[in-house]
Amino acid sequence: MPELRRGATSNRWVIVAPERGKRPSDFERKGTGLAEQRPENCPFCSGNENMTPPEIYRIPEGAEDWHVRVVPNKFAALQDYESPGREAIEGFFDRMHGLGAHEVVIETPDHAAALPNLPVEQVKRVVDAYIQRLSTLMENPAFRYVLLFKNHGREAGASLLHPHSQIIATPIVPQEVRNSLSIARSYYERKERCLFCDVMLAEIRSGARIVEETDDYVSWTPYASRFPFELVIYPKAHSHDFTTLTEEQRWGLARILKGTLARLLQLVGDVPYNFVLKTTPNPVPRPGKPGYWTTLPYDYHWRIAVMPRLTQVAGFEWGTGFYINPMLPEDAAAALRDVDVS
User: Fold this and answer.
1) Rounded to whole angstroms, how far apart are CA atoms 237 and 239?
2) CATH number of the structural domain 3-337
3) What are the start-end ranges of the E strands in 47-144?
4) Where are the domains of the chain?
5) Fewer CB within 10 Å: C terminus or N terminus of the chain?
6) Which CA distances in Å does 82 have to 144, 184, 218?
7) Using CA atoms, how far apart are residues 280 and 239, in angstroms rounded to an integer?
């Protein structure tokens, strides 16, 4: 029977309708839709560095042969301005300059590689690049939020096959993030505990939706998953800021991120997916707002959300804000747990 579920960290309702669902093996393996692209025409391949804007960062720094490169997005959503240029339009609307930054993290020189198939040492280098770029961008007080995300496959928003992820810094904190922050702060005010830590502990104690647990991280399928095989990865130690990871924690994240994506790849094939880092807004003080997100170290918890694109978002979802998930998260977790990624 269908049921409505609401998650604790988002207040978003989801319809779980398993009778509409399929077994993991029944999902159509569409691939990324980008297989026709060739290395000789790829701007992200080694040897084609002149096809991208001048790079911002590389690992190793200063070396001719690189493992990871970071470059400005050639078709940037936001760009540099001297000021935000805030103004009112016709009394009801707000406008400001498209202030921000938009970068591409090229995860490997290898055109045909995929993040879950890379050696863990290479995934660790990618994590290092993420942290370096987020830390640097957050030094700019005009950037109030920095979003890291990966689009894998055409249906997930990617236009290039070569493994890459993106970082966008914005001059406002997005409403989706504000909602999550407000829920977390309200919970902490009532209970003096981190909401995300409480959810994580409840999931570990239940075990029904846990996919993998290590010393430092745990992954599971959320109770109110919007998509089949949707996953979250949490650090087990309370932390609001992704950029503060120690060397050991970076290695741990590289292992569970690689393993999580490898489970998906083996179970449902090379399907399109997105992953998104949910981390703290820039905590730089704001003029006239002395209390601006000052409770973040206590009530917020960074995590990564992984969303395979196995179902279509259509009119009902756009009209209501509800999602229809044809697979019970508990069944998805069981199937993912059974995948051998050793």
Assistant:
1) 6
2) 3.30.428.10
3) 57-59, 68-72, 87-89, 93-95, 101-106
4) 3-337
5) C
6) 15, 33, 42
7) 9
Return the higher-pLDDT residue of 34 and 148.
148
Summarised one tens digit per residue, pLDDT across range 70-89 is 999 888 887 777 777 677 77
Distance (Å, whole) CA 232 – CA 239: 15
Cite the active site residues: 164
Exposed/middle/buried for residue 30 (C-beta within 10 Å: 0-12, 13-18, 19+): middle
List of residues 6+ apart from 53 with CB closer than 8 A? 71, 72, 74
Going by C-alpha positions, the residue among 100, 52, 96 that lies closest to residue 79 is 100
- Token pair belonging to 14: 């989801």
The one-character DSSP state at 289 is: B
Mean local confidence (pLDDT), 163-188: 92
Q: In this structure, are residues 286 and 292 in contact, taking their beta carbons and an 8 Å threshold?
A: yes
Report how far residue 298's alpha carbon sits from residue 211's, in angstroms, rounded to the nearest whole number: 27
* Paired tokens of 302: 């960074």
pLDDT at residue 26 is higher than 80: no
Q: Please give the model's pTM, rounded to 2 decimal places.
A: 0.91
- CA–CA dist 98, 82 (Å, integer): 11
Phi, psi at residue 6, to the nearest 5°?
-125, 130
**Coil, strand or helix: which one is 143?**
coil
Cα separation, 85 vs 243, in Å, equals 29
* Residue 172: predicted pLDDT: 87
Orientation of helix 195-206 relative to helix 175-191, angle to 10°: 80
Hey, which residues does 75 pair with through a beta bridge? none
User: Which alpha helices (DSSP H) does the chain contain, by range?
Assistant: 120-137, 175-191, 195-206, 247-268, 296-299, 315-320, 329-337
Which neighbouring-strand residues pair with 93?
89
